[in-house]
Amino acid sequence: MVSEREVAAMRRALDLAATADAPRGPNPRVGAVLLDADGDAVAEGYHRGISTAHAEVDALSGAGTRARGATMVVTLEPCDHVGRSGACTAALLAAGVVRVVYAQTDGNPVARGGADTLRAGGVDVESGVLSAAARALNPAWTAATERGRPYVSWKCAATLDGRSAAADGTSRWVTSDEARADVHRRRAEHDTVLVGTGTVLADDPQLTVRGPDGRALPAQRQPLRAVMGYRGVPADARVRDAAAETIHLRTRDPREALRLLHTAGRQLVWLEGGPTLAGAFVRAGCVDEVVTYLAPALLGDGLPVLAGAGIGTLADAVRLDLRDVTTVGADVRITARVARTEG
Q: How, if at all, do strands 41-46 and 31-35 pair?
């Protein structure tokens, strides 16, 4: 049975998870509140991103000896995995926490099972408290863990008439400096940037993330650079430099590429590249979100942003749920989720 104070603590934990400096990214946003035997909060915490303490450990560090005999209220099932940090289950047991109340079950096969471990250690566990709100907090991460493949956000930049490049092939730059800076911010929220070999051979991009100051993030904070296709990637290609890790997926099948990335532990893919690659992912039902940057310009002839998607009639159109429309510099950014995804 869950008390009113525990429900109130869960609402506070959800607010903590959504704190502005709790970054969106490959890891889920998680908040935690520690209650004493009287139901009063003695500590709270939240996850601040990769390589930082998990929410439970953050709260425990502020509680000290007051954690013994306490209840941990947390938005996600405590992890049972040793990765960059120790398992949260071990930390809770060592601290003497006697009860855990969590919202969302962890579907990540690497980290799940925390509730069973805690029960085996004598901890009273309650699950599913405000679970819908917790799921809504991390929609992409939730989808990736439940589908068994990475969540894919397709990024494209185009003129108002839907052209990504001019008839002569020139494409730098369709959008503004502000839009390109926004792309770097969004890249940083994903654990993988994916392009085709065609883009690498034609444009020689570095595919790294630069911060607001224009400097590249450290290599350990860079997304994985994934290149898919059968053609070779030159040894001197910028995507092969030491600025970030790179993997070559020797396939043209989007589902196979995502399977390989999922096996490698990747959950959030930022899909860039040309219209052919985008078309293959749309045709395979492997695009979950579309992030489009529209420049106030017209090109007439030129490359479309999407090709070979296998859509021959209006009835087969891939419908999108509009999530956000905002101006970025002189451009407009439109974010929409695919209403029907078969992958």
A: antiparallel
